[in-house]
Amino acid sequence: MIALGLAMDAFAVSLGVGATQYAHGYRPAFRLAFHFGLFQMLMPVLGWLAGKTVVEKIASVDHWTAFGLLVFVGGRMIHAGFSQGESPHIQDPSRGLTLLVLCVATSIDALAVGLSLAMLKVEILYPVLVIGVITASLSVVGIRAGKRLGTIFGKRMEVFGGLVLIAIGVRIVVEHLR
Question: Which has the closest alpha carbon to 106: 127, 80, 132, 125?
Fold first, then answer.
């Protein structure tokens, strides 16, 4: 259940990326799914290793960091959705800085999960493998479903995808402020 919960942000982002049609073919889908799964695996390990002091220090800003990253990428997608023709500034989100931003933004919550697992004295290997595999699998499903929606709805899906990213960022902030 924890793995499914952590994978939902990556699934939603994958749905948006697939809808924008910027990640063409199997290689970009594999890169995106692989990196989302990898980051979802590594962040709990970092949380598990970091211990309570480091997590408490970044807990006050982690949600704002995720929010800012998602709003930035989402805003670019919305801008591209409203622009005429091809958008030269939006590239394949399965490469470079955009990929890194998306991976970090969708996996920050996994850091706290890793800390929780350490406090419960749970061995980390099995949970992170399950988290990574489920995240990667749901990312592939999201990309494929998004491509179908993007084909049907066209550039409007870019705007929708950007709004989804911003909504995820808002949800992260609201959850942390409660």
Answer: 132
Residue pair 17/30 in contact (Cβ under 8 Å)? The answer is: no
Residue pair 39/107 in contact by the 8 Å Cβ criterion:
yes
> For 58-89, how does the pLDDT look when each residue is reduced to its tens digit (9 = 90+)?
667 777 877 887 788 778 778 877 876 655 44
pTM of the prediction? 0.73
In angstroms and rounded to an integer, the radius of gyration of the C-alpha atoms of the chain is 16
Distance in angstroms (rounded) separating the CA atoms of residues 80 and 82? 5
Distance CA 160, CA 15 (A): 10
Return the DSSP state at 116: H
Which of left, alpha, beta for 51 (phi over 0: left; psi -120 to 50: alpha)? left
| Torsion sign across C-alpha atoms 5, 112, 47, 72 | positive
